[in-house]
Amino acid sequence: MFWPVQQVDTDALNKILADPALQGAQIGVCVTSSGGEVLFERNKDVRFVPASNQKVLTCLTAFGVFGTKERFSTSFWRTKKRLEVSASGDATLTLADLRGVRKRLNLDAHLPVCIHGPYRQSLGPGWEWDDLAWYYAATTAPLTFDDGAFEVWAEGGRVAPLPAELGVRVVRHPGNGAVKVTFDREHEVLTVTGRLPSGRTRLERIAQANPTLAAAHALGGDPVWSDHPLPSGPPDVVIVGKELATVAKECLEESDNAIAERLMALAVTKSGTLSKPLYDVAPGFVHDWLVAHAGLASDSFRAVDGSGLSRHNQVAPSALCKALNWAQSQPFADVWRDCLPAGGEGTLRSRLKDSTFVGKTGTMDAVVCLSGYLTTKSGNRLTVSFLVNNNLAPASAVREVQDRFVRALEKGS
Asked: Is the pLDDT of residue 4 over 80?
């Protein structure tokens, strides 16, 4: 259903965009009716670094390719000489799942873990080296657990033991200063300095240095990438993940980069194994799919990863509005809206409470983005994309401007 097109208060909106927090920054804004008519714009066709607004494009592609009820599975065959694993890239596998498989199949003989996956583990292009130790830059892999990350906890004034499967060595430097956690990925050494709290406290979340190796160790062996055929008989164990709608909701509400990367990989590998490295193929697949199916202009965006972690991603506000409006015309429209956080939820937990807005945030250094849907006081549904790059003001100040802009739209007729 398309609501009648109404006017917006352009003077009030322009006044908000004149806020000092945006001075000297690049600003891109597009506001449309649910039918796609542009009601207000500022540089709507200029491409911006979208940060996690990229996840909108990734998740919509996954919904379009699979529908919302698809579940991804991981299958296991034990033979006399090895463990065969068919790994799709399920984003919901846990360490407990893999330990459970090891116990069920009595995998204590240190059998080789032969992994059949549609791609090899990879880091996204353009990911910055100083991000790579942290959970939000976890390596994309078809077989991994716990989002390719691990948590570091303090317990009783000590660093709680880490899972042995990770192979991480912990170095402790006590002191009276604040707690600091660093991780040397190359040597897999975790260093914890400062005075630890006595109560159980999470200190940090770290990216696994080699998630494929850690997953294989959880299964009792070392990984081998396999090209030989899978066993002909039924698997001994199958782990089936959550429905795609549930996974996408987790991705969008908490802006989970690892899930977004694997959803992109799942979409491009639906038809089988890739003949080229994952990131040589997958971003182009997302681009071409959205152009062909959602009607986005080919030059309105560039995808280089699924999460938005790379600064090489580029998206115009008009492209995000186009994608969001297309989603509203699809059978999964209601499910899609439910996947997006509302004010007070997920990455909007401290923003836009008591607002009608649902949508996606996106934040990096000098990048603050917001795209989604809102309803005016007269019941008209609008789509908005507000992208800011190269801001010198704190992100919190830019977010406050964006939130005032949304509320001004809501007050309109």
From this structure: no
